[in-house]
Design brief:
Length: about 220
């Protein structure tokens, strides 16, 4: 949880972009998605790192990032002992507690378990304030069936006033797909059904979320 929390806090510092480099999506992580249009890689925040990439919107006021980490120690044990849905639900509860303790302003927290590309996923949203600007934060956590298993975190944040008309986050979730080793498909593998199909196949399950507060 400390790693996820540190990524959240670090991501609130929007740094300027730099030259184009390979992203985590170019390094065969086993999944693919469509990065929001008009976003470019920020090498200052995540320089050519196979475990994570950050993209910034042209105006520098919105950010999208992918973190892709092997699961080790207690996190891996919890996954193996309890399964993906229970593990992700526990992550949601812990993250809510940690964020409320570390962010000066933290409110409108919402957490839900759903299916994305046929696999359990945890979607989290909340608001916070940075340098006088209110941001809407969207997170998606998934577990990749690799050896060892990997935890995937998608992070999208934008100014609150942009949220009503912005559809980039929904498009990211709808285009997320697992990629087979054989190749083929839009991202180099068979394109899986997206978030909407998962909603039809399994009833969404609300993860415990009891804090809607400001500090």
């Amino acid at each position: 949880m400390r790693r996820i929390l540190s990524l959240m806090v670090l991501g609130l510092l929007f740094l300027p972009g730099c030259k184009k480099v390979k992203t985590v999506l170019d390094l065969s992580p086993g999944f693919g998605l469509e990065v929001p249009a008009g976003f470019t890689v920020d090498t200052a925040l995540n320089p050519n790192n196979e475990q994570g990439t950050t993209w910034l919107r042209e105006d520098g006021r919105a950010m999208f990032s992918i973190d892709f980490q092997p699961m080790e120690g207690s996190r891996r044990s919890a996954l193996l002992d309890h399964g993906k849905r229970t593990y992700l639900g526990q992550v949601g509860r812990e993250l809510e507690h940690d964020l409320s303790s570390h962010l000066v302003e933290f409110h409108d927290f919402d957490s839900r378990l759903l299916e994305v590309a046929g696999q359990p996923a945890l979607e989290i949203s909340f608001q916070t304030r940075q340098e006088g600007q209110v941001y809407d934060i969207h997170l998606l956590l998934l577990v990749a069936d690799s050896q060892p298993p990997h935890e995937i975190m998608l992070d999208y944040r934008l100014p609150h006033e942009d949220s009503e008309t912005d559809q980039a986050w929904d498009k990211v979730l709808d285009t997320f797909a697992w990629i087979s080793d054989e190749g083929g498909g839009e991202h180099g593998g068979e394109k899986a059904e997206g978030k909407d199909q998962g909603k039809e196949q399994a009833k969404e399950e609300k993860a415990p979320a009891h804090a809607k507060k400001s500090h």
